[in-house]
Design brief:
Layout lengths: L1 H9 L12 H23 L5 H12 L3 E2 H8 L3 H13 L3 E5 L7 E5 L1 H25 L4 H11 L14
């Protein structure tokens, strides 16, 4: 079954613009996502974690001192969902919470050494996959790829500000 599907995918003709869905790109995106998260999923599973834990580790790693409120905004999840994931990460000594310097009610999030090691292992896995794909596509294609991915994001849900996404 998988072989016939691969053959069908490999020979699929793109739909002419405006004439229906481009099944090839839709399916490639499904499979790319499956493999992009698959290797990290297996590492996270060793700690009893899932993709929600991965997202929290990633964004805290990228934004040390992020407040819980800011993280909720980035992830667009409920406080209840985040509380469960944070509890796991704090009790496992991957993240620590500190009161804000100016507003003691704020909870700011920081990776511990253990958390930083896990976050960096996860980003290395995904970074290698992206680097390999861009190298095969042509490194000059990176801006086009970035633009393509950005255009997949709903314009009604802008990305939170990030220093790397200018």
């Amino acid at each position: 079954m998988a072989q016939s599907f691969q053959r069908k995918l490999a020979i699929a003709e793109p739909a002419p613009p405006g004439e229906g869905p481009d099944f090839e790109l839709i399916e490639l995106l499904f499979f790319a996502y499956r493999d992009f998260v698959g290797e990290p999923d297996r590492l996270l599973e060793k700690h009893g974690f899932g993709r929600a834990h991965h997202r929290v580790l990633h964004f805290v790693n990228r934004n040390e001192g992020l407040t819980v409120a800011e993280l909720l905004e980035i992830l667009e999840i409920t406080k209840q969902s985040l509380a469960r994931v944070l509890k796991d990460l704090v009790s496992g000594e991957f993240i620590e919470q500190r009161a804000g310097a100016e507003d003691r009610r704020q909870r700011r999030l920081y990776l511990t050494e253990r958390g930083k090691a896990l976050a960096e292992a996860l980003v290395r896995m995904q970074g290698r996959r992206i680097a390999r794909a861009i190298a095969k596509a042509d490194p000059a294609a990176r801006p086009v790829i970035a633009r393509f991915l950005a255009e997949l994001i709903d314009p009604e849900r802008p990305l939170p500000a990030s220093p790397d996404m200018a």
